[in-house]
Amino acid sequence: MTSPPSCPSSGARPPQRRPAPAAWRELLPGLALLAVALVWGSTFFMTKDLITRVPPLDYLAVRFVVAGVVGALVFARRLARADAATWRAGLVLGAVYAVAQLAQTYGLSIASASVSGFLTALYVVGTPLVAWLLWRVRVGRATVLAVALALAGAAVLGLSGLHVGTGELALLGCATVYSVHVALLSRWSVGRDALALGAIQMISLGAVHTLVALPDGIVAPQGRDWAVMLYLAVAAGLGALVVQSWAQARMDAARAAVIMAMEPVFSASFAVALGGEHLTWRLGVGGSLILVATLLAELAPLVARGRILRSLGAGPEEDRR
């Protein structure tokens, strides 16, 4: 016979169970968005090279038609189960995203390169403003500081003079529409299947870009360019948007915008590492500011609630040591 378990003496402390790592679970959406920004950053030097052989509008059409087709095949069952509200949300989000990309493509074709990155990055400021205007979402002081740091970093990274013309206005419009997309995605992705929502957005993007490019005919990539196009369509298109949809369902829009501001930092880093460009003080200083902004946006809420040490298993007495 097994003896019954002995009761602990009154002076003994019962063993403490290690708590679930809640803080790390809360960090996962931010880390996922950081991975999205990394993948997006890897596309700039590829795209710059590819559009020398494929017209920009045709590039957008082919890229997102491929992404839409892959998404429809891979997530066919999820798409069949998705309700009408998810389809409406995905189609609208995809159309909004397509408008932003068209404005960015037009703006980049005529605007100064020195201001294009900065103007596009204004969506970091626009996103919390859109969320406040639409739903009166209040932004915490840490997030406001993170937005300011990210904007300053974007200015150092890419701003060397400002001339306001048609191209600059198009990029400003692009940043505004991107802000709407990020704000809407944070709102509409909650409670929905992120895989289906991402795939529907790709289908919508492919349809819009095809309608825009079709009147002049569409030039398809040739030879090895298809390998680059597949990466841009499947990894940086469908995969990134699915992950973004999942992550934004778990955080507010302002935090998401700050984290995704790392994209130009990754873009410049890839250009230095793989594209033959030189490391500059702008990349070092601007990138550092945006990195600090990202860390602030991610860690401040956890520090404020004192959850990091508790998630690592430290009790109140251990925290004070």
Key features of this structure:
mainly alpha, 16 helices, globular, disordered N terminus, disordered C terminus
Number of strands: 0
The string of secondary-structure elements, in order, is HHHHHHHHHHHHHHHH
Low-confidence stretches: 1-20, 314-321
Residue share in helix: over 70%
Please give the domain count.
1
The average pLDDT is 84
What is the SS-derived class?
Answer: mainly alpha
Report how far the terminal alpha carbons are from each other: 44 Å
Membrane topology: Multi-pass membrane protein
Transmembrane segments: 27-47, 59-76, 85-103, 115-135, 142-163, 169-188, 195-214, 226-244, 256-275, 281-304
Organism: Actinomyces howellii
Protein name: Putative DMT superfamily transporter inner membrane protein
Q: How is this fold's topology laid out?
A:
Layout: H1 22-41, H2 44-50, H3 56-74, H4 76-81, H5 84-110, H6 113-120, H7 123-135, H8 141-158, H9 166-188, H10 194-213, H11 225-248, H12 253-260, H13 263-273, H14 281-304, H15 308-311, H16 316-319
Helix pairs in contact: 1-11, 1-12, 1-13, 3-10, 3-11, 5-9, 5-10, 6-8, 6-9, 7-9, 7-12, 8-12, 8-14, 9-12, 10-11, 12-14, 13-14
Structural features, described:
The chain is built from 16 helices and no strands. By secondary structure, the chain is mostly helical. Helix content is 74%, strand content 0%. Helix 5 (84-110) runs antiparallel to helix 9 (166-188).
Quick take:
By secondary structure, the chain is an all-alpha fold.
